[in-house]
Amino acid sequence: GMVQSKTYAKILYDFTARNATELSVLKDEILEVLEDNKQWWKLKNRSGQAGYVPYNILDLVTPEDLAAMEQSNQKYRDLSPRASGSSSPSHKLPPSYAGDKWGSEMAAHSSSEAKGQLIHHMDEVNDELLKKITNIKIQQPQRNFKVEKTQQVHVPLTFESNAMEVRVWLEANSFSKRTVDHLGILTGAQLFSLNKEELKKVCGEEGARVFSKITVQKSILEKNREKSELEEIMQRRQERIDSST
């Protein structure tokens, strides 16, 4: 209940107030006791601030103790670690120290905070996932298209190709519809016989690109032809050697 004569309490551990009714105190600080109710005592510090502090971090100081302290040449003010800076963080109070109520409050607080962080983390993960999915959706059709294109580029164009094959080859190289329609009526041999100027007349600006593609294709064919001719010569020679032995 209410204290009649002035009583003082010495603080055993640092305590930080977590709301307006509590009072922050430091180890070794001496405060006036206003109320000594159960778990929480109401104290008043030197600055005149009052608030509740857990009773189990207090040690009662009798007026005699106080007088003895003052006599041993320590001024009341100097007992406050705020002035002397002797507060040591190693004396911090473990959260569960001041009764169950405080401990469970702290635990509830930290778990809800942890839950908040977890939810935030999950949101981030979901965002990442969404980004990935939308990126895949955006890239998917293009990617498939590219794959088909590279497969189709291998459509052979030879001097023996018919108009249908020429058309497929032109489409595979993604030339414009105009080019495909104009040149898709020619055979491979006819297409190979056209020069750059003729192609430009038929296809406009794209003619130059058509010409370079045809030139590349022609050189591949020539290489292959030379290779097959060489192989043929080698084979004949081998046959001759075989027959002569």
UniProtKB/TrEMBL annotation:
Belongs to the EPS8 family. GO terms for cellular component: cytoplasm; ruffle membrane; vesicle. Signal peptide: none annotated. Keywords: Cytoplasm, Phosphoprotein, SH3 domain. This is SH3 domain-containing protein. Residues 4-63 form the SH3 domain. One of its GO terms (molecular function) is actin binding. It is found in: Cytoplasm. One of its GO terms (biological process) is Rho protein signal transduction. It holds the Pfam family SH3_1. InterPro entries: EPS8-like, Eps8_SH3, SAM/pointed_sf, SAM_3, SH3-like_dom_sf, SH3_domain. Its main location: cytoplasm. It comes from the Eukaryota. Residues 74-110 are annotated as: Disordered. The keyword Phosphoprotein applies. CDD domains: SAM_EPS8-like (cd09540), SH3_Eps8 (cd11764). SMART domains: SH3. Residues 81-90 have a biased composition (Low complexity).
